[in-house]
Amino acid sequence: MMDIAILIPAYNPDEKLLEIIQQLLSLNSFKRIVVVNDGSQPEYERIFAKLADLSGVDLLTHAQNQGKGAALKTGLRHLFTHFQSNVGVVTVDADGQHAIEDILHVAAQTNQHPQALTLGERQFDHQVPWKSRYGNQITLGVLRLFFGINLQDSQTGLRGIPWPLIPMCLDIPYDRYEFELELLLVCKRGGIPFHQVNIQTIYFDQNRATHFNPIKDSSRIYFVLFRYTITSLVTALTDYLVFFFAYLLLQQILVSTLLARSVALIVNYLLVRNAVFHSKKKASTTFPRYVLLVFVFGLISAGTITLLHSVARLPVILAKALVETPLFLIIFQLQKGFVFLERVKE
Q1: Which terminus of the chain is more exposed, N or C, with fewer CB under 10 A?
Q2: Domains located in the chain, CATH noted
């Protein structure tokens, strides 16, 4: 028996959940199986009643639906409290889309790589429903571009979570599908490597049974990804207003740029440090580096804006927008690697 627990969040499950549990119990390979009923409707109570009678299964219940992330955290908190000797926890979806042999494979890999987050990697070919295939590909592209996370499947629910990672999971402030994406960012920030293993790609009836809402849940997920953009837009509003009024009064591009940067600097620093990167590095280290980047890129921005205004005869405000759009991505990468985050190996 592996020192691994199984955790299954369930909302309005069908008979496939019972089949999964019975097959897992018959293997006698896992220390414990925890199922979290995330506020399912009354007509599904019969399924959970059967689960409650099974030896080796802990059934936890939310009175109301709280979301997949909340269900995962409830299960992880239960396991971390009662089963301290575990190597890790394998999370499994309740819809039957994870083959038993793949669950065993991910568990075995978790046992062999107890310091890594093990991810069951699906193959996204033409047989995969479009909302799953394209949603995953877009998310993967954003993760690579903005966060340097290179994965093949960002949305897999079959994951091996190492025991030391559980307290970090419990601190994640998101309770729905965005929890799983934030977990990837937490691992990146904490220097926890990703270990990917190939698994089967199984969908029933074009994945119509999924509770994932493409619009509502995707917006939550991309809010997690675009926190830096949102923070930057808030800061940019302050920056542009100060620059606009300073330039009207002073007619000096360099002075107006540096003044606008100074006003926006403190707010942006606090937002990026605490809301985007969740940096653990001391402010005495990060703040001087941050100020240096602001100063250097302020000079670059001012010089380029001046050039476009004087040579190309562009309006100053338009030139500023054209210059600072590409600088946006460059500054993000430098803030991530030079200012806020420790350099870690994958």
Answers
A1: N
A2: 2-225 (3.90.550.10), 227-340 (no CATH)
